[in-house]
Design a protein that fits this description.
- The protein is of the alpha+beta class and 597 residues long.
- It has 4 domains: 106 residues, Rossmann fold (3-Layer(aba) Sandwich), CATH 3.40.50; 70 residues, 2-Layer Sandwich (Dna Ligase, domain 1), CATH 3.30.1490.20; 241 residues, ATP-grasp fold, B domain (D-amino Acid Aminotransferase, Chain A, domain 1); 67 residues, OB fold (Dihydrolipoamide Acetyltransferase, E2P), CATH 2.40.50.100.
- The strands form 9 sheets. The chain has an 8-stranded antiparallel sheet. It has a 5-stranded parallel sheet with strand order 3-2-1-4-5.
- Strand 9 and strand 10 form a beta hairpin.
Length: 597
């Protein structure tokens, strides 16, 4: 499909180098567009990312600190100093990390570096969800019923909840991306929801303030992509449906939305462009909303490029990252609104290192073999390769798989074919989950699939098939590929022979053979008294005391792993005879959390 007309501005004459303040697939995505624009991409990396693919994609790469994000990818001063050292005229933040940090945008301006994103004032206005709701209400944009100011305490939150009407959502004022979001179905649930939202808000956004709004139980999550130019022109590129989510974080996105017609598209497009104009927005951005039948409510605005921007690119032919860069360089509005045309249908599946069968528990690890799908209408945005480690330090995304075809049914078939070709050995991913959900009647009918996402039995049915057992003595030796570092240089080495004692050899097809159960209990059953951790992470909350009586399903603790909070429930009823954890403690997969008799 040919793209809309291109502008004549030569961004290469404005920017010779652009530093990408991010990692993984988005860093590679931005670098590719920069190269096409004849602008030199500059990468940054933490110590753990020294050999990551995004480092090699750039013309230059600079170490910015240890693995911990606060000491590397969130280190504003280090990133600014690195941009100066590299001679970069601009910084592209990608998404996550510093992408919606107004102080970072200001620091760039003070250093004489162009921030490829919106003005800091717009980031602040939309970064505060309560302030954004207030601005939108004043501009006549429909908002979900609820408060426009944070609650001072639980008492005020109860008042906000009564005014909004139960069920309600407790939301972090500075939140986004599903973080700082808790639901209270009844007044009895409010205290826990209020506490959880505030805790996540403090952890992820350094803002513990929480407000309350009505919780719409089964809305469609529909968002509109906008482009706002320096001359005041704001256009939209149609909508995306992102209704299939876990823990209010997206898993599958598609464009156009299956339940949006031309009349609604025009209406919500105007809502989005009015919202952007109300805060003096400039750059690419997304206005998120909730669709209930013919109604549409403003939810929030994301002041950055979205993870799922790819499906909009596939149906419009517009390179959204290129437009971001053009806008930052002073480019004019291209295309005009009446030149935007949606053609065909696109679907994106997030290939995360998660175990859907275990309630989407994070599943970090090392990729043994890796093969991406290809063919007509298939696009893969990834940041990994064979040998890459998906570490608990960062989010669990391995890649994004995007397909395009003439309509939704054909695009679904193409996605199923592409998922079948995708090989990620040695790592548990959401590929089996995606294949299963795209085969359901609910998906075919364009439903939100929320019931399936909450059905533990159905989720368990999406578990990948067991790999074959290890080879018996006398069988043909296994061949294994390793990366070996010698005197600071990496070498690819193939080892042929029997598996070393205690080793985890890769079986045929790139899958690891099943491990023997650990003595501590890798998976607790009701017959076992031991409750082990199913993941590696940090204990954020301990919900019980030693000696307490609990019922099966009661909350024992909350473990944070790979930027997600995971609730660990009692696997049986009984008395907590031993409690092996404390808040702030680090735990590994298989560690004993509690003993319940």
């Amino acid at each position: 499909m040919p793209p809309p007309p291109c502008a004549q501005i030569d961004c290469a004459a404005v920017f010779e180098k652009v530093l990408i303040a991010n990692r993984g697939e988005i860093a590679i995505r931005v670098a590719r567009t920069l190269k096409e624009m004849e602008i030199g991409p500059v990468a940054v990396y933490s110590e753990i990312d020294r050999d990551a693919p995004h480092v090699r994609q750039a013309d230059e790469a600079f170490l910015i600190g240890p693995a911990a994000p606060a000491e590397s990818y969130l280190n504003v001063l280090k990133i600014i100093d690195t941009a100066k050292q590299a001679g970069a005229e601009a910084i592209h933040p990608g998404y996550g990390f510093l992408a919606e940090n107004a102080d970072f945008a200001r620091a760039c301006a003070e250093a004489g570096i162009v921030f490829i994103g919106p003005p800091p004032e717009a980031i602040e206005a939309m970064g505060s969800k309560t302030r954004a709701r207030e601005i939108m209400a004043e501009a006549g944009v429909p908002i979900v019923p609820g408060a426009t100011k944070p609650a001072a305490d639980l008492g005020e939150a109860r008042q906000q909840a009564e005014e909004a009407g139960y069920p309600v959502a407790c939301k972090a004022a500075g939140g986004g991306g599903g973080k700082g979001f808790r639901v209270a179905m009844t007044p009895d649930d409010l205290a826990e929801a209020f506490d959880g939202a505030g805790r996540e808000g403090e952890k992820f956004f350094s803002d513990p303030r929480v407000y309350v709004e009505r919780y719409l139980e089964d809305p469609r999550h529909v968002e509109v992509q906008i482009l706002a130019y320096s001359d005041g022109t704001v256009i939209h590129l149609g909508e995306r449906d992102c209704s299939i989510q876990r823990r209010h974080q997206k898993l599958i996105e598609e464009a156009p939305a299956p339940h949006v017609d031309a009349e609604m598209r025009e209406r919500i497009g105007k809502i989005a462009t009015d919202a952007a104009a109300a805060v003096g927005y400039r750059s690419a951005g997304t206005v998120e909303g909730l669709q209930v039948g013919d109604e549409y409510f403003f939810l929030e605005m994301n002041t950055r490029v979205q993870v799922e921007h790819c499906v909009t690119e596939m149906v419009t032919g517009v390179d959204i990252v290129r437009e971001q860069i053009r806008i930052a360089a002073g480019g004019e509005a291209v295309p005009a609104q009446d030149e935007v045309e949606l053609r065909g249908h696109a679907i994106e599946c997030r290939i995360n290192a998660e175990a859907a069968a275990k309630s989407f528990a994070p599943a970090p690890g090392t990729i043994s073999t890796y093969r991406e799908p290809a063919g007509p209408g298939v696009r893969v945005d990834s940041g990994v390769e064979a040998g890459s480690e998906v570490t608990p330090m960062y989010d669990p995304m391995v890649a994004k798989l995007i397909v395009w075809d003439a309509d939704r049914e054909l695009a679904t078939r193409r996605m199923q074919r592409a998922l079948g070709e995708y090989e990620v050995g040695g790592l548990t991913t959401l590929i089996p989950f995606h294949s299963a959900i795209l085969a359901t009647e609910q998906w075919a009918c364009g439903e939100t699939c929320r019931e399936l996402m909450e059905d533990r039995e159905w989720l368990r049915s999406t578990a990948p098939e067991q790999a074959p057992p290890p080879a018996e003595e006398g069988a043909e030796p296994l061949a294994r590929d390793y990366k070996v570092e010698v005197s600071g240089k990496l070498f690819d080495v193939k080892v042929i022979g029997e598996t070393a004692a205690g080793g985890a050899a890769t079986a045929a097809g790139g899958k690891r053979p099943p491990k023997r159960e650990r003595k501590s209990g890798a998976a607790a059953g009701a017959s076992s008294e031991v409750l082990p951790s199913s993941l590696q992470g940090t204990v954020l909350k301990v919900a019980v005391e030693q000696g307490a009586e609990v019922a099966e399903g009661d909350l024992i603790c909350v473990i944070e792993a790979m930027k997600m909070e995971n609730e660990i429930a009692a696997h049986r009823s009984g008395k907590v005879e031993e409690l092996k954890i404390s808040e702030g403690a680090a735990v590994s997969s298989g560690d004993v959390l509690a003993v319940i008799r």
